[in-house]
UniProtKB/TrEMBL annotation:
Residues 8-201 form the L-asparaginase N-terminal domain. Residues 220-321 form the Asparaginase/glutaminase C-terminal domain. This is L-asparaginase II. Keywords: Hydrolase. The keyword Lipid biosynthesis does not apply. Substrate binds at residues 64, 97-98. It comes from Caballeronia ptereochthonis.
Length: 330
């Protein structure tokens, strides 16, 4: 087979369970994440050579629970640099599942290219029986090599499904089908080399986004509302110099009365406050005169608290203050 005509895809490895290793192949817990290097990941999937010409880089070797904003900056800028090259047709990022949805959304808003960027991961370490990483990696490269994936923003290929980075979230602690897009559903599927998209992305992203990663990220934290919540966390964060707070509220972003007063005080001190929901699906409506207009808070819409934090960090880091417009747009 003449492979010179195949797309050239950059595979950037960051660690995670997909690069995990355990002493017992029958165990899917108790492994060490990020141990296996990108070359070994690729060697385990010889069929990749039939799909694309691969350029591989090891960007990090971490458990994704330890993802940092500094690594986000490094990753976003490296992807931009690679996609600016004429001989790179797309990028695949291997990642841990724990914070994949946050990294994917961050890249969705900061990468400045319409070429495909696809994240993938695994729920079982590479040494496990029936490891899911090799097929997920093959499918991710297949999606990145597809002309149909261009212009759709950052994608997540997992368990034969293709998700938008904006919508996807982890919904299981153990299942190989751990990722879902609860409110909107998948974009399409990839199976046996076939890539099919059944819908597209309408909100602005990547080259149409107004954001860029920063050297210094503003401090934005998340607090939750629950029965008998206190104001201790909010007051401590304000004293520590936090620039923004996202609330994982109950129901439609509602907040305990004590927490509401603490957040109102925080807003008066210049802290941006965004209401999201801890529920897992649905959207948070802007309450207008009933809440947001009085308190000075912002509705996160359909973003979960963790993605709302990503967007708030980018907005504050870019010096933007029309936050409700930002959340309504992205």
């Amino acid at each position: 087979m003449n492979t010179s005509s195949l797309p050239r895809i950059a595979v950037l490895a960051t660690g995670g369970t997909i690069a995990g290793q355990a002493g017992d192949a029958s165990k899917t817990a108790g492994y060490k994440a990020g141990v296996v290097g990108v070359d070994k990941l690729l060697d385990a999937v010889p069929a990749l050579g039939l799909v694309a010409r691969i350029h591989a880089e090891q960007i990090a070797s971490i458990d994704s629970k330890d993802m940092s904003a500094a690594l986000w900056t490094t990753l976003s800028r490296r992807i931009d640099a690679l996609l600016a090259q004429d001989d790179i047709d797309g990028v695949v990022v291997t990642h841990g599942t724990d914070t994949l949805e946050e990294t994917a959304y961050l890249l969705h808003l900061t990468v400045k290219s319409t070429k495909p960027v696809v994240l993938t991961a695994a729920m079982r370490p590479s040494t496990a029986l029936s490891a899911d990483g090799p097929l997920n990696l093959l499918n991710a490269v297949t999606v990145a090599a597809s002309a149909d994936a261009a212009g759709k923003g950052v994608l997540v290929a997992f368990n034969n499904q293709i998700h938008s980075a904006r919508d996807v979230t982890k919904t299981s602690t153990y299942s190989v089908g751990a990722f879902r897009s609860p409110e909107t559903g998948v974009l399409g599927f990839v199976q046996d080399g076939r890539v099919e998209f059944q819908r597209t992305v309408v909100r602005p992203h990547t080259a149409a986004s107004e954001f860029a990663v920063a050297e210094q990220w503003p401090m934005v934290e998340i607090v939750a509302s629950y029965a008998d919540a206190s104001r201790v966390m909010v007051d401590a964060l304000v004293a520590a110099g936090v620039k923004g707070i996202v609330v994982a509220g109950t129901g439609n972003g509602s907040m305990h009365a004590t927490l509401t007063q603490a957040l109102a005080d925080a807003v008066k001190k210049g802290v941006a406050v965004v209401r999201a929901s801890r529920v897992g699906s649905g959207h948070v409506m802007r309450n207008g005169a009933a809440s947001d207009d009085v308190l000075g808070t912002v509705s996160a819409g359909t973003l979960n608290p963790y993605k709302a934090r990503v967007l708030l960090m980018l907005a504050l880091g870019s010096g933007l203050d029309d936050l409700q417009r930002i959340f309504d747009t992205y």
